[in-house]
Amino acid sequence: MMYQGIPENVLLSIAENKSVKAAWEVIKTLCQGAEQVKKAQVQTLKTEFEALCMNESDQLDDFYLKLNGLASNIRALGEEIKESYIVKKLLRAMPTRFLQITSTIEQFGDLDKITVKEAMGSLKAHDERIKGNGESTDSKLLLTEEEWRKRESNESKLLFTREEWQNRSNKTNDGKPSFMRNRDKCRVRCFNCSLYGHFASECRKLK
After folding, report:
1. How many CA atoms lie within 13 A of 54 on its CB side?
2. Cα(178)–Cα(176) distance, rounded to whole angstroms?
3. Helix, strand, or coil here: 115?
4. Contacts of 171 (CB under 8 A, 6+ apart)
5. Which residues does residue 189 pair with via DSSP β-bridges, in sequence order?
6. Which pLDDT belongs to residue 140?
7. From CA 74, how far away is CA 3, in angstroms rounded?
8. Is the Cβ–Cβ distance between 196 and 190 less than 8 Å?
């Protein structure tokens, strides 16, 4: 009866035993060893599951596949893992760009009743809104950069400080700002060449 209820690899291990008791002790030892290996594997998977975090550059779907794959492997080894536990881990593992939606789910949702699919649906909707805003922002930035380049070609300088704009607006008929006419420039230090006696706008060295 014992021979009929065990697999072939175990049968080879107990073939040399002459009593039922001795054979049973071998089977017991083998099963205990397999159980210990299974527990060790579960602990390793749980540690990896807890340490898993999504980076800013990661895709949401790819991260979910990793997280769900670890949870499936843990369950396959006979360890129970609740869906609410996966949902809480999913929210904790999100990067900062999901902070608003994760905080909303945690504050106003019942984490013990929310399914993983529902949580993923909210996260994906939020991610799509972020991508939409990012595309419009990029186009605005490109337009602004183009405008600044036009100004650079016209003014030979890309950016101006407030003081420089005020100085340009206070230019007199001779082409010099009013504060430069009656001021001794012996203590004036050029911000372009670091020498004294002239302003950066008057400097002849390459900017």
Report:
1. 24
2. 6
3. coil
4. 177, 178
5. 196
6. 46
7. 31
8. yes
